[in-house]
Amino acid sequence: MDIDNTHFALFGLNERYALDAGALERAYREVQTQVHPDRFANRGATEQRVALQWATRANEAYRVLRDPLKRAIYLCTLRGQDPADEHNTTMARPFLIQQLEWRESLDDARAASDPAAIDALRGQLDARREALRGEVEQALDRDGDADLAAERVRQWMFVERFAEDVASAAERVHSAAH
Amino acid sequence: MALLQISEPGMAPAPHQRRLAVGIDLGTTNSLVAAVRSGVAEVLPDEQGRVLLPSAVHYRPDGTASIGHDALAQRAGDPRNTIVSVKRLMGRGRRDLAAELRYDLVDATDARATGDTVRLSTAAGVKTPVEVSAEILATLRQRAEDSLGDDLVGAVITVPAYFDDAQRQATKDAAQLAGLNVLRLLNEPTAAAVAYGLDHGVEGTYAVYDLGGGTFDVSILRLTHGVFEVLATGGDTALGGDDFDARLADLAMKAAAVTPDQFSDAEHARLDAHARATKEELSDALLVDLAFEAAGVHRHATISRDAFAAATKDLVDRTLAAAARALRDAKLQVADIAGVVLVGGATRMPQVRAAVERYFGKPPLIDLDPDRVVALGAAMQAHALAGNRAADGDEWLLLDVIPLSLGVETMGGLAEKIIARNATIPVARAQEFTTFKDGQTAMAIHVVQGERELVSDCRSLARFELRGIPPMTAGAARIRVTYQVDADGLLSVSAREMTSNVEAHIAVKPSYGLGDEEVARMLQDSFGSADSDMRVRALREQQVEAERIVDATEAALAADAALLDDAQIDRIRCHIDAVRRVGSGSDHNAIKDAIDALAHGTERFAELRMDASVRRALAGKRLDEIA
């Protein structure tokens, strides 16, 4: 085991998108039980420093792997396709049109202070998120198509950002209704 | 007759049979010290059997101070020299403070070197909150050493979970000044969860609602198989029982038709004390009479529980808003919470209990003493950190979080988030910068903490100046700045120019609190003119450290020499011998150098051991899963 390993190897997991959340959590706890600075509080400075590095590394790997989107971005990057790369912005045309439609629906719902319309929009986003997740898994784990995976991940990143806008609009509309 | 202890052949005997470590709850109103004795955590009383030490320090003109009950007894007669609730001033600047603070503040003449630190003018001279807190901590350390009969190897000091970096650093400085080796700064709600969870063997998701004398925290934790994982924390470090006392004093003044300006300092201090007592009586009674003096005239007011509840409703609502946000951050609903543990004396107020029960939809858990539970949890953690873990199966792990986001100032006074709040610590993030001008060799970074967009709305932590960047054309340098938050929740910053691999020098200017030099000076001052005391203590510390590191390295070699080749083992043995040679001598610098050489010489070994232990742990896991 080496601190410079990939996040997957660090926890002894296969480098795949599909992941057993329970196995990840158990591995994370096993590693932290070994490396956490609390286990080295009465040791020398060297051991404390190594423990700090390892525990920091384990927390970072866990943070990335347990989050479906962050895990997708990370795995695409490992396969040579960084979805967040500025030079890599292609997105399917139908999705760009979909974006415009969503934005319009949100503007309309906000203007009308219509909680039902916002909830409907949220439902659409949830469904799209689930669909993208399945497509990313298919592309990465079965088709070995990192290009396609990265493109779907970019769509997913948009969905997450837009979902935040929708959530804050929902909060405003709901609190105005009370 | 005690039996002789004989260790198994080949196993090094424990160098110290008991490694004494304590947990200290440094509270706004009261402080406590606790320790694990015979496997049980207990709070340590003073000679008169009192467990709570009032967090009060009275300074006398001869330069001496009295602490605790004795100090509190002086408060009415000498309020300006009796410092109470000093926790509210820790790591704070003058601008942070409410206007009504009734001490004499000192204008920092050298604001450049020391930031905006609060300084109090007392009969015994100028005192910082760090020094006042150190008096309280030193009193508790003495109490612990007297009742345990030996020196302490260290202490776990609790802090409000919502304390920012400056407030944590100030607490650590105070402990250092009090001669305590800080094993860990532990968040108060986490300490309470440890005491509650280990005591009751519970599992599930719990909320800890901690309303102390001057601070409020709420933490959401998941307890599973000996792991205490903080999912989210929220709070307000300027909201506590003190604020409820002040509301009660306001009610009394209104009822008696007097205004604050009619009170002398001493009368005001007495009204505060009466208000606190009345608040406590209202937990049992529905109506309480309160008598006080203003401008030398006797006054009288009757306060009802309902009126007090109405006058403090907004304070209680603020705590519930913080709880709601913590739940949101943890992505949980109220129904997911298995139980709510109440901590802090202020949770005895009926209106607080009723509000918590209403919000969480279940009666709160009150079977642990809310005044003691934090110190008890800290003592359990201190016992474990000092190396007294009972057995492998008895281990537990704390995974805590950073309460407030860390960011840096970018163009236009905006704060760019580097580390998000509620990230599990220890945590680090790196960021790359480049130079703006040809030949630029320095740059400045302003680190802030808080959730707001504008730097001016966040709390300034420190300004870092990076120097020694190799001169290059503009935009060519790649400076990687790493922000590391350790297990105490404290930030450190390092920087490296990546193309040349040159480490940039970092000068830190803390926005609040004390610089390293000032802490060192205070430490020196605390030994007075007796310079030899300082040297004796430095020598003793180095000798203990030498013994510790030799023991630890021997144990490591006994366990894992197989990871090294013979030449590597010989080199480590040489370093051990060197420490042993100077360890019995009286030159503390020579001991320190030998220790540093041993530490440096075992770096690779420490890394290999860590790699191996992780590999072993994961391999064991996989076997379990196959079975």
Overview of the structural elements:
The complex is a heterodimer of chains A (178) and B (627). Helix content of chain A is 74%, strand content 0%. With 178 residues, chain A is mainly α. Chain A has 2 domains: 7-66, DnaJ domain (Helix Hairpins), CATH 1.10.287; 93-177, HscB, C-terminal domain (Monooxygenase, Up-down Bundle). With 627 residues, chain B is of the alpha+beta class. Chain B has 5 domains: 21-189 and 374-387, 2-Layer Sandwich (Nucleotidyltransferase, domain 5), CATH 3.30.420; 200-238 and 319-370, Nucleotidyltransferase, domain 5 (2-Layer Sandwich); 241-313, Actin, Chain A, domain 4 (Alpha-Beta Complex); 406-515, Substrate Binding Domain Of DNAk, Chain A, domain 1, CATH 2.60.34; 527-615, Substrate Binding Domain Of Dnak, Chain:A, Domain 2. In chain B, a hairpin with a 5-residue loop joins β25 (479-485) and β26. The longest helix of chain B has 30 residues, at 531-560. Residues 1-16 and 623-627 of chain B have low confidence and may be disordered.
Q: Gist?
A:
The complex is a heterodimer of chains A (178) and B (627). With 178 residues, chain A is mostly helical. In chain A, 74% of the residues lie in helices and 0% in strands.
Topology:
The complex is a heterodimer of chains A (178) and B (627).
Chain A (H helix, E strand, L loop, with lengths): L6 H4 L10 H15 L9 H22 L1 H11 L14 H20 L2 H28 L3 H32 L1
Helix pairs in contact in A: 2-3, 3-4, 4-6, 4-7, 5-6, 5-7, 6-7
Chain B lengths: L20 E6 L3 E8 L2 E4 L9 E2 L1 E4 L5 E3 L1 H5 L8 E3 L19 E2 L5 H4 L5 E3 L2 E3 L1 H20 L5 E6 L5 H13 L4 E6 H13 L3 E8 L4 E9 L2 E10 L4 H15 L9 H17 L5 E8 L2 E8 H7 L1 H17 L9 E5 L6 H11 L12 H13 L11 E3 L6 E5 L3 E6 L7 E7 L9 E7 L9 E9 L11 E7 L5 E7 L4 E2 L1 E6 L5 H11 L4 H30 L5 H18 L4 H14 L1 H24 L1
Parallel strand pairs in B: 1-11, 11-12, 13-18, 15-19
Antiparallel strand pairs in B: 1-2, 2-3, 2-4, 5-6, 5-7, 8-9, 9-10, 13-14, 14-15, 16-17, 20-21, 20-23, 22-25, 23-24, 24-28, 25-26, 26-27
Helix pairs in contact in B: 3-4, 5-11, 6-7, 9-10, 13-14, 13-15, 14-15
